[in-house]
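Just wondering, does anyone understand these tokens?
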Amino acid sequence: MNPFTIVFDVGGTAIKAAVTTAQGEVIESTVETYPAHSDQSKEFMLDHFYQLIRKQAAKISDPNQTFAGVGYAYPGPCDYERGISLIQGLQKFDALYGVSILDAMRERIDADQALRSQMIPNYRIIFDNDARLFGVGQLFIGPANKADRAICITIGTGTGSAFIDQGIALKNKEIYARPFRNSMIDDYISKRGVLRIAAELGLPASLDVKDIADAARDQHDEQAIAVFRKFGEMFGQVLLPFMDEFGPKLVIIGGQIAKASDLFLPYTRQAMQDRAPEFHTVMNSSHSTFAGISALIQGYSE
């Protein structure tokens, strides 16, 4: 029986969790969202993280089923190799600054006879950037394994990226801080980038991205359509330099803003003209992230 993997996508407000098969498939009955409690004390948060491992393991009723390990998509800054949180001054996980969550979880698991017996002898605990894990997931269960070079971009509260080269998700290839217009890419290819355009076009500040997308689709609102036209053109401008620098044949888009890709991608292609790559949109990014964790735990990709 192939071992499963316990996976977590950690955010400042909530932690999404699941159990995946050895093939990276998410077991839907195990998907759960828990509060992050990111403003609590160090011991409270470490105990909370450990209890979440136990809760997820308990969702598998087969007593003979084992786990290959535990994996975390964890926000940066973080020493991912050692699982040490370096977040400070962001009103989330401040009390875990400098703490090896990896070591703390291993210590607790090894002291818990019942839980340890469910883990394979050489179980692993891994931490990695959520955007890179999304990219590894696309290598494992998505179309990235069919392209020599691909860029995976997650668009949400910020811009995440993973560069795929010959079947490897490269480390430390982030584009969010790259200069663009008056600041950096992260300020434009993100939720706040969409809302900035909306404000410039006179839309009410009370509207969220989904509201604007609904207005564009359902009401054919010209201002809402214009928001995504401008965003799509801007996205194309961001991507163009990477056509020369990296030469991807495929760009995979995930994150919450990907759900509006039908509204902005046509304008991205138009802005890039004959230099536009093939695009692929992932509507459920967390499943790809979970698959990426599973792949690393199982040793299929590094």
Summary: The chain is about 40% helix and 25% strand. The chain has a mean pLDDT of 94. The longest strand covers residues 119-128. The domain at 144-283 is CATH 3.30.420.40 (Nucleotidyltransferase; domain 5).
